[in-house]
Design brief:
This protein has 20 helices and 26 strands. It is α/β, with parallel strands linked by helices. The strands form five sheets. It has an eight-stranded antiparallel beta sheet. The protein has a six-stranded antiparallel beta sheet with strand order 5-6-7-8-12-13, covered by helices on one side. A five-stranded parallel beta sheet has the order 18-17-19-20-21, with helices on both faces. Helix 10 runs parallel beside helix 14, helix 14 runs antiparallel to helix 15 and helix 15 runs parallel beside helix 20. The protein starts with a strand and ends in an 18-residue tail after the last helix. The chain binds fructose -6-phosphate.
């Protein structure tokens, strides 16, 4: 969740680390801090509560000078977002500065022991034990590297840790433990940057070539960065030969392209995201799905007896849609479950089980842990992921990349539609390969998919209408989103979008469940958003809408164009175009995203960085 940046090179470290923290801010923005080793070898520290730009504004005088430093942007877990709890943390003698992403699970017992031994703690964080552990090792005569490794062997939990040492010998140690919290190391023209992810690192290498040599730390691997380069080693100090690769800045460039928010830009990019998710995966001549990046053989596909789809948050909603698609078109029993629950069950998984994880970041701790568990149990593991080289892609047997381009807005939008597109492709591919779908049906499905980018583009055209509807609903404090079948998870997604960026209480519910409880909530203060597109469950949803109207509820319905009959019974309508059933979840999502976006704007919320959230949830 938190963001880490470290720099060693010939340039001033502060502006580079500051820029990196700004790029990593989507991971957390409760507090920020930078530590720089000054020309006298002393560690200079500056911290702020809140967003990174506070580091510029706190009137603390000139920026610390020096060419070695570490920075951190925090998403608070242990300890409130205060100045004392902001990273970097230092040891008693202020010789070491440490930044951290993840949780030290055994910090209480370590802290108790270190306190008994005379170490003085200044914060409530779990992180601070790391600094005192390194200090303890050095007090016992170990070198900085040895003490850092010893600390790594003593702490429990998944995390990324980095530290700098005062003095002339420029040195950064960075360590990754468990599956949460990646560390990337990028080198170019005599400078090295370490950080939490690649898109935030490369723009920092202000080099002529604009190209960096990049390595990703695996679990229990450590990087020691000096002015002479990078050494990779394990926790016992044995050297590791790291496969690195060249990556150019053009691969990871991001800006708002004139939009007010990244979220709006990313919503507007959805036709492109859906098209690129289909690129080279559909043979438009033969009107067949062809997945060259699917990792299993024909025989293995034929032997599958079950599909389990997992993810968290928006990606869980994609998994839930995927379950319907796999059952309907793939002809296989399918289930969808939140990765955070799944990882703590003891599910039956065999080599005939296909486990599909979905994740924008590929770094969500629960999803990665659930994948590892499925792999250990011998399942076949596929991931649908947007982030190249992320953990999910490294654990899985194969990856279907979303190719949506980097997503910066904390609320996922285009990666959700890219996931739904790929889940459609996967379901059709399984159906084709297993002889469940006849040629005519699979051609019809493929033809439908080909229309998706155009239909989504049409939906995005009339922005004024979404603004108008949002004005009518922005003052409601309670929302119920209803949908049935494949649209039930879309109702949940609509509610999630609204609650996370506008802070309005919103619930997504399967429409048929309403009469078993939530109907008690209906009155004229409750807004109901009903998904009632023309599909085989349409009549059922119409009944649910009538039940709400009969109780004075205000209803905004998402209907298929031309449905004047139901339109006459509800208060307001957002239309989606007539489309084949497998496209409806994609199309119905778009108005809900824009409703949430415009209501959040009217409520003057921080749309791209809503409170308490982070883009990449790398803690449990
Ligand atoms: C909601 C949102 C989150 C993420 C969730 C999983 O808009 O973005 O709910 O979907 O944190 O993240 P990934 O997809 O990276 O595993």
């Amino acid at each position: 969740m938190c963001g880490i940046v470290g720099y060693i090179g010939g340039q001033e470290a502060w502006p580079i680390i500051y820029e990196g923290l700004r790029l990593l801010e989507y991971r957390g923005y409760d507090s920020a801090g930078i530590a720089v080793v000054d020309p006298h070898g002393n560690i200079q520290l500056r911290k702020t509560v809140g967003k990174v730009n506070g580091l510029d504004e706190d009137g603390a005088g000139p920026k610390p000078q020096g060419t070695v430093g570490l920075g951190h942007t925090r998403w608070a877990t242990h300890g409130r977002p205060t100045h004392e709890n902001a990273h970097p943390h230092t040891d008693c003698q202020k010789r070491i500065a440490v930044v951290h992403n993840g949780i030290v699970e055994n910090y209480r017992e370590l802290k108790r022991r270190l306190t008994d031994d005379g170490h003085v703690f200044e914060s409530e964080t779990d992180t601070e034990v790391l600094t005192h552990l390194v200090e303890e090792g050095m007090d016992q005569g170990l070198t900085f590297q040895e003490a850092f490794r010893r600390m790594g062997r003593m702490v429990k939990g998944s995390q990324a840790i980095s530290a700098i040492l005062q003095g002339d010998a420029a040195q950064i140690c960075a360590l990754r433990l468990g599956h949460a919290g990646g560390i990337v190391v990028a080198q170019s023209e005599g400078q090295t940057i370490i950080g939490s992810d690649l898109p935030a690192l490369l723009p920092l290498l202000h080099t002529e070539s604009n190209i960096g040599q990049v390595g990703f730390l695996e679990t229990n691997e450590m990087a020691v960065v000096t002015r002479n380069g990078v050494d990779y080693q394990d926790l016992d100090g044995n050297p590791i030969v790291k496969q690195t690769r060249m990556v150019s800045q053009a691969d990871v460039q991001v800006d708002k392209a004139g939009y007010q928010h990244f979220m709006l830009k990313e919503i507007m990019e959805q036709p492109q995201a859906v098209a690129s998710a289909m690129r080279e995966r559909i043979d438009f001549e033969a009107r067949r799905v062809d997945l060259p990046d699917f990792p299993f053989t024909k025989q293995e596909i034929a032997d599958l007896d079950r599909v389990i789809l997992i993810g968290c948050g928006t990606s869980l909603h994609a998994a839930q849609v995927g379950r319907h698609l796999v059952e309907r078109y793939g002809g296989l029993p399918a289930e969808a479950e939140s990765a955070s629950e799944f990882r703590y069950r003891n599910p039956y998984i065999s080599p005939r089980t296909l486990v599909v994880s979905i994740g924008q970041s590929g770094e969500t701790a629960d999803t990665v842990a659930a994948m590892q568990m499925a792999k250990d149990k011998g399942g076949k593991l596929l991931t649908i992921c947007n982030a190249e080289g992320s953990q999910a892609t490294r654990i899985a047997d194969g990856t279907l990349y979303m190719r949506a381009g980097i997503e910066i807005g904390v609320a996922s939008t285009k990666t959700f539609l890219a996931s739904l597109t790929i889940l459609n492709l996967l379901a059709i591919f399984l159906g084709q390969s297993r002889g469940i779908l006849d040629q005519e049906k699979s051609q019809e499905l493929v033809d439908g998919l080909a229309q998706a980018p155009r239909l989504i583009g049409d939906l995005l055209a009339d922005q004024a209408n979404y603004r108008r509807i949002a004005q009518l609903y922005a003052d409601f404090d309670y929302f119920l989103f209803l949908g049935r079948g494949v649209n039930a998870p879309i109702a949940s997604e609509g509610a999630l979008k609204l609650k996370e960026i506008s802070y309005i209480h919103a619930e997504g519910y399967p429409a048929g469940e309403m009469k078993h409880g939530p109907i008690a909530l209906i009155d004229n203060a409750m807004a109901t958003v009903a998904l009632a597109p023309k599909d085989f469950l349409y009549d059922k949803v119409v009944n649910n809408v009538k039940e709400v109207k009969a109780r004075d509820g205000r209803v905004l319905a998402v209907l298929t164009e031309g449905d004047t009959e139901l339109a006459a019974e509800v208060d307001h309508v957002l239309y989606i175009p007539e489309a084949p059933e497998h496209l409806i979840p994609l199309l119905a999502t778009v108005p809900l995203q824009l409703l949430a976006y415009n209501i959040a704007l009217l409520r003057e919320r921080d749309v791209d960085q809503p409170r308490n959230l982070a883009k990449s949830v790398t803690v449990e």
